[in-house]
Protein backbone atom coordinates (compact mmCIF):
# COMPACT_ATOMS: atom_id res chain seq x y z
CA UNK A 1 0.00 0.00 0.00
CA UNK A 2 1.19 3.50 -0.84
CA UNK A 3 1.16 6.02 2.02
CA UNK A 4 2.40 9.02 0.07
CA UNK A 5 2.37 9.58 -3.67
CA UNK A 6 3.82 12.73 -5.23
CA UNK A 7 3.76 13.36 -8.99
CA UNK A 8 5.43 16.25 -10.78
CA UNK A 9 4.99 18.60 -7.82
CA UNK A 10 5.86 22.21 -8.57
CA UNK A 11 5.84 25.27 -6.31
CA UNK A 12 7.37 28.68 -6.99
CA UNK A 13 7.78 31.74 -4.81
CA UNK A 14 7.56 35.00 -6.74
CA UNK A 15 8.31 33.22 -10.01
CA UNK A 16 11.35 31.35 -8.67
CA UNK A 17 10.84 27.58 -8.51
CA UNK A 18 11.46 26.07 -5.07
CA UNK A 19 10.11 22.63 -6.04
CA UNK A 20 10.50 21.85 -9.70
CA UNK A 21 8.90 18.55 -10.70
CA UNK A 22 9.25 16.27 -7.67
CA UNK A 23 7.88 12.70 -7.87
CA UNK A 24 8.22 9.85 -5.37
CA UNK A 25 6.20 7.18 -3.55
CA UNK A 26 6.43 6.06 0.05
CA UNK A 27 5.03 2.68 1.05
CA UNK A 28 2.99 2.15 4.17
CA UNK A 29 5.24 1.31 7.13
CA UNK A 30 8.34 2.63 5.40
CA UNK A 31 10.74 5.20 6.87
CA UNK A 32 11.98 7.61 4.23
CA UNK A 33 14.62 10.27 4.80
CA UNK A 34 14.85 13.46 2.76
CA UNK A 35 18.30 14.98 2.55
CA UNK A 36 19.72 17.89 0.57
CA UNK A 37 21.52 21.19 0.91
CA UNK A 38 19.84 24.36 2.19
CA UNK A 39 17.24 25.63 -0.25
CA UNK A 40 16.88 22.30 -2.10
CA UNK A 41 13.08 22.33 -1.64
CA UNK A 42 12.71 19.83 1.21
CA UNK A 43 10.57 21.93 3.54
CA UNK A 44 8.37 23.28 0.73
CA UNK A 45 7.67 19.69 -0.36
CA UNK A 46 6.82 18.65 3.19
CA UNK A 47 4.55 21.68 3.61
CA UNK A 48 2.64 20.64 0.46
CA UNK A 49 2.33 17.10 1.88
CA UNK A 50 0.75 18.25 5.13
CA UNK A 51 -1.56 20.80 3.48
CA UNK A 52 0.22 23.95 4.64
CA UNK A 53 0.99 25.02 1.07
CA UNK A 54 -0.95 24.56 -2.12
CA UNK A 55 1.09 23.21 -5.04
CA UNK A 56 1.16 25.25 -8.26
CA UNK A 57 0.80 21.99 -10.18
CA UNK A 58 1.23 18.25 -9.82
CA UNK A 59 -0.60 15.78 -7.62
CA UNK A 60 -0.08 14.84 -3.99
CA UNK A 61 -1.86 12.03 -2.16
CA UNK A 62 -1.31 11.31 1.52
CA UNK A 63 -3.12 8.28 2.97
CA UNK A 64 -5.27 8.46 -0.15
CA UNK A 65 -6.31 12.09 0.44
CA UNK A 66 -5.41 15.36 -1.27
CA UNK A 67 -3.87 17.50 1.51
CA UNK A 68 -4.87 20.74 -0.21
CA UNK A 69 -8.59 19.95 0.09
CA UNK A 70 -8.77 17.34 2.90
CA UNK A 71 -6.39 18.91 5.42
CA UNK A 72 -8.66 18.60 8.45
CA UNK A 73 -9.39 14.94 7.85
CA UNK A 74 -5.73 14.26 7.31
CA UNK A 75 -4.69 16.19 10.43
CA UNK A 76 -6.41 13.57 12.58
CA UNK A 77 -4.39 10.76 10.97
CA UNK A 78 -0.92 12.28 10.73
CA UNK A 79 1.54 13.70 13.26
CA UNK A 80 3.66 16.63 12.23
CA UNK A 81 6.69 18.28 13.73
CA UNK A 82 7.99 21.09 11.58
CA UNK A 83 11.16 23.18 11.81
CA UNK A 84 9.39 26.19 13.23
CA UNK A 85 6.74 24.44 15.32
CA UNK A 86 6.11 26.36 18.55
CA UNK A 87 3.57 26.78 21.35
CA UNK A 88 2.50 29.84 23.34
CA UNK A 89 5.20 30.53 25.96
CA UNK A 90 2.85 30.33 28.91
CA UNK A 91 1.16 27.01 28.21
CA UNK A 92 2.38 24.28 30.57
CA UNK A 93 3.80 21.08 29.08
CA UNK A 94 1.08 18.95 30.73
CA UNK A 95 -1.70 21.27 29.53
CA UNK A 96 -0.37 21.14 25.97
CA UNK A 97 -0.37 17.32 26.04
CA UNK A 98 -3.92 17.16 27.39
CA UNK A 99 -5.10 19.69 24.83
CA UNK A 100 -3.47 17.91 21.89
CA UNK A 101 -4.75 14.51 23.09
CA UNK A 102 -8.29 15.95 23.02
CA UNK A 103 -7.98 16.72 19.28
CA UNK A 104 -7.73 13.07 18.26
CA UNK A 105 -10.36 10.33 18.23
CA UNK A 106 -7.97 7.59 19.41
CA UNK A 107 -5.23 9.40 21.27
CA UNK A 108 -2.47 7.64 23.21
CA UNK A 109 -2.25 7.61 26.99
CA UNK A 110 -0.46 10.95 27.23
CA UNK A 111 0.79 10.33 30.76
CA UNK A 112 2.60 7.22 29.55
CA UNK A 113 3.94 9.15 26.56
CA UNK A 114 5.30 11.75 28.98
CA UNK A 115 7.21 9.04 30.85
CA UNK A 116 8.50 7.46 27.64
CA UNK A 117 9.80 10.77 26.42
CA UNK A 118 11.46 11.70 29.73
CA UNK A 119 9.14 14.66 30.18
CA UNK A 120 7.51 13.63 33.43
CA UNK A 121 9.28 16.18 35.62
CA UNK A 122 8.30 19.00 33.26
CA UNK A 123 4.54 18.69 33.39
CA UNK A 124 4.05 21.97 35.26
CA UNK A 125 6.71 23.92 33.44
CA UNK A 126 5.73 26.63 30.94
CA UNK A 127 6.79 26.02 27.32
CA UNK A 128 8.79 29.27 27.34
CA UNK A 129 10.86 28.05 30.32
CA UNK A 130 11.90 24.75 28.71
CA UNK A 131 15.38 24.28 27.23
CA UNK A 132 15.70 23.93 23.45
CA UNK A 133 16.04 20.15 23.74
CA UNK A 134 13.09 19.87 26.11
CA UNK A 135 10.92 21.92 23.73
CA UNK A 136 11.93 19.63 20.89
CA UNK A 137 10.99 16.53 22.88
CA UNK A 138 7.65 17.98 23.88
CA UNK A 139 6.84 18.91 20.27
CA UNK A 140 7.70 15.38 19.21
CA UNK A 141 5.53 13.87 21.90
CA UNK A 142 2.69 16.16 20.75
CA UNK A 143 3.17 14.95 17.18
CA UNK A 144 2.69 11.37 18.39
CA UNK A 145 -0.11 11.74 20.91
CA UNK A 146 -2.81 11.16 18.27
CA UNK A 147 -1.29 7.74 17.47
CA UNK A 148 -0.79 8.80 13.84
CA UNK A 149 -0.55 6.38 10.92
CA UNK A 150 2.07 8.65 9.41
CA UNK A 151 4.50 11.07 11.02
CA UNK A 152 6.33 13.88 9.28
CA UNK A 153 9.40 15.12 11.11
CA UNK A 154 11.42 18.09 9.85
CA UNK A 155 14.80 18.40 11.60
CA UNK A 156 14.04 15.77 14.20
CA UNK A 157 17.11 16.14 16.39
CA UNK A 158 18.44 19.60 15.57
CA UNK A 159 19.38 21.25 18.87
CA UNK A 160 19.50 18.02 20.86
CA UNK A 161 22.63 16.90 22.71
CA UNK A 162 24.24 13.59 21.63
CA UNK A 163 22.55 11.54 24.35
CA UNK A 164 19.10 13.00 23.61
CA UNK A 165 19.69 12.34 19.89
CA UNK A 166 20.44 8.68 20.55
CA UNK A 167 17.39 8.36 22.76
CA UNK A 168 15.26 9.98 20.07
CA UNK A 169 16.59 7.50 17.51
CA UNK A 170 15.54 4.64 19.78
CA UNK A 171 12.05 6.05 20.09
CA UNK A 172 11.80 6.45 16.32
CA UNK A 173 12.97 2.83 16.04
CA UNK A 174 10.07 1.79 18.25
CA UNK A 175 7.64 3.76 16.07
CA UNK A 176 9.02 1.98 13.01
CA UNK A 177 8.59 -1.38 14.65
CA UNK A 178 4.98 -0.48 15.40
CA UNK A 179 4.45 -0.04 11.64
CA UNK A 180 4.14 3.75 11.52
CA UNK A 181 5.10 5.36 8.20
CA UNK A 182 7.76 8.00 8.84
CA UNK A 183 8.97 10.85 6.64
CA UNK A 184 12.06 12.43 8.07
CA UNK A 185 13.86 15.55 6.81
CA UNK A 186 17.39 15.66 8.17
CA UNK A 187 20.64 17.55 7.85
CA UNK A 188 22.42 14.74 9.71
CA UNK A 189 23.58 12.06 7.32
CA UNK A 190 24.26 9.56 10.12
CA UNK A 191 20.67 10.02 11.25
CA UNK A 192 19.19 9.62 7.77
CA UNK A 193 21.28 6.48 7.28
CA UNK A 194 20.52 4.94 10.67
CA UNK A 195 16.77 5.46 10.54
CA UNK A 196 15.71 5.37 6.88
CA UNK A 197 14.74 2.37 4.76
CA UNK A 198 15.13 4.63 1.71
CA UNK A 199 16.46 8.14 1.23
CA UNK A 200 15.45 10.84 -1.27
CA UNK A 201 18.25 13.20 -2.24
CA UNK A 202 16.92 16.65 -3.13
CA UNK A 203 18.92 18.97 -5.39
CA UNK A 204 17.69 22.24 -6.88
CA UNK A 205 14.02 21.47 -6.26
CA UNK A 206 14.19 17.96 -7.73
CA UNK A 207 14.73 14.42 -6.50
CA UNK A 208 18.24 13.69 -7.77
CA UNK A 209 18.32 10.13 -6.40
CA UNK A 210 16.07 7.81 -4.37
CA UNK A 211 17.08 4.48 -2.90
CA UNK A 212 18.33 2.60 0.13
CA UNK A 213 21.39 4.17 1.78
CA UNK A 214 23.51 1.32 0.40
CA UNK A 215 22.17 1.75 -3.15
CA UNK A 216 22.82 5.50 -3.04
CA UNK A 217 26.35 5.10 -1.73
CA UNK A 218 27.15 2.40 -4.28
CA UNK A 219 25.81 4.50 -7.17
CA UNK A 220 27.83 7.53 -6.07
CA UNK A 221 30.94 5.51 -5.21
CA UNK A 222 30.79 7.08 -1.75
CA UNK A 223 31.54 5.60 1.66
CA UNK A 224 28.90 7.71 3.44
CA UNK A 225 25.76 9.66 2.52
CA UNK A 226 27.79 12.90 2.70
CA UNK A 227 29.35 11.78 -0.55
CA UNK A 228 25.94 11.39 -2.16
CA UNK A 229 24.85 15.02 -1.64
N1 LIG B 1 7.95 31.61 2.06
C1 LIG B 1 8.89 31.72 1.12
N2 LIG B 1 8.94 32.82 0.33
C2 LIG B 1 9.88 32.94 -0.64
N3 LIG B 1 10.82 32.01 -0.89
C3 LIG B 1 10.82 30.89 -0.12
C4 LIG B 1 9.86 30.70 0.91
N4 LIG B 1 10.10 29.50 1.50
C5 LIG B 1 11.17 28.98 0.85
N5 LIG B 1 11.59 29.82 -0.12
C6 LIG B 1 12.71 29.56 -1.06
O1 LIG B 1 12.45 28.33 -1.71
C7 LIG B 1 13.64 27.58 -1.84
C8 LIG B 1 13.46 26.21 -1.19
O2 LIG B 1 13.31 26.40 0.22
P1 LIG B 1 12.99 25.22 1.22
O3 LIG B 1 12.83 25.81 2.59
O4 LIG B 1 11.88 24.40 0.68
O5 LIG B 1 14.36 24.37 1.14
P2 LIG B 1 14.98 23.35 2.18
O6 LIG B 1 15.61 22.30 1.35
O7 LIG B 1 13.98 22.93 3.17
O8 LIG B 1 16.10 24.24 2.88
P3 LIG B 1 16.70 24.16 4.38
O9 LIG B 1 17.55 22.95 4.42
O10 LIG B 1 17.51 25.42 4.46
O11 LIG B 1 15.56 24.13 5.33
C9 LIG B 1 14.76 28.41 -1.24
O12 LIG B 1 15.41 29.09 -2.28
C10 LIG B 1 14.04 29.39 -0.35
O13 LIG B 1 14.74 30.61 -0.25
Automatic annotation (TrEMBL):
<keyword id="KW-0067">ATP-binding</keyword>
<keyword id="KW-0046">Antibiotic resistance</keyword>
<keyword id="KW-0547">Nucleotide-binding</keyword>
<dbReference type="Pfam" id="PF00005">
    <property type="entry name" value="ABC_tran"/>
</dbReference>
<keyword id="KW-0813">Transport</keyword>
<dbReference type="InterPro" id="IPR027417">
    <property type="entry name" value="P-loop_NTPase"/>
</dbReference>
<feature type="domain" description="ABC transporter">
    <location>
        <begin position="4"/>
        <end position="229"/>
    </location>
</feature>
<dbReference type="InterPro" id="IPR003593">
    <property type="entry name" value="AAA+_ATPase"/>
</dbReference>
<dbReference type="InterPro" id="IPR017871">
    <property type="entry name" value="ABC_transporter-like_CS"/>
</dbReference>
<protein>
    <submittedName>
        <fullName>ABC transporter ATP-binding protein</fullName>
    </submittedName>
</protein>
<dbReference type="InterPro" id="IPR050763">
    <property type="entry name" value="ABC_transporter_ATP-binding"/>
</dbReference>
<dbReference type="GO" id="GO:0005524">
    <property type="term" value="F:ATP binding"/>
</dbReference>
<dbReference type="InterPro" id="IPR003439">
    <property type="entry name" value="ABC_transporter-like_ATP-bd"/>
</dbReference>
